Structure formats: C-alpha cells, structure tokens
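Sequence in, structure out. Go.
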Amino acid sequence: MKTKLILFSLIASLSFAHEGIELGPNKGRILEFSKNETMHGEVTAKGDKFHIALLDKDMKPVAMAEQTLTAITGERDKPVKLNVEKDAEGFVVPLVKAGEWLILQYKESPKAKAITARLEYNTATCDECKKAEWLCECKKANEKK
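Output:
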C-alpha cells in the first residue's frame, strides 16, 4: 500500500510540473549522452527535423567521428526506428508527432556501450514563459528564487 501511495504521488507531481530542463547554447534541450556529464546532445527542432548537436562538458561543440545514434519512437509494443543522418555538427532525425517520445541511443564508438536518452516532444505552450513545454525552463527559474 505504501509503495502504491509513493508511486501515485510521484506520477501526480510529474504530471502537473513544468519540464524545468537545461537549455544549451542554441536554446535547445540538453540530453545526457554520458554517465559522467562529459557528453551532451542539444536537441533543436528546425522544420520537420530534430537536429542533435554533440557538446562536451563545457557545452562546446564536439567533432563528429565514430559516434552513432539510433532513434526510436512509437508505442512500446510497436516501436518505429527512425532514419538518422549524420552531419558536421551532429545528427538529424525526423520530427516525431506532438506528445510522442523520442528515444535516442548514443554510442561514442562502435564498440562503446550505448547511452539511452529520452525526450517527450510536448508541444503544449507553457503559460509562464510561452515556450513549448519540451523547451520550458520555468521550474529551474522558480527553484532559484
């Protein structure tokens, strides 16, 4: 019973909270691509594509080499693998539908262990900052007060 109450409280608090996320130098959503915060992905949306730039621990661009990225969306029982293209700054992935999850698996090299990052593409507008919820950093600003 206690476990159910804790789980319900956690779900309720997450459903009413703003995203409160970290934004990168291009005002994109930062996702962690390492266990020790030495590699990040900055996700921005341009047109009908997500652009995922690789950034180091100081939020500086990382040169593209052997890195790979796998992208998945859709229902858990019917996942859809997305086409991932590589460019000079990082990766390009098709935009997912509003409300869907984008699951990314990043590998530093072919033999490296994959790091998984998740992004809910929540396009609802935040009442406070007027940004899309997936880019809202209001919670972070409110915590500093």
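Check: The chain is about 15% helix and 35% strand. Residues 1-19, 141-145 have pLDDT under 50 and may be disordered.
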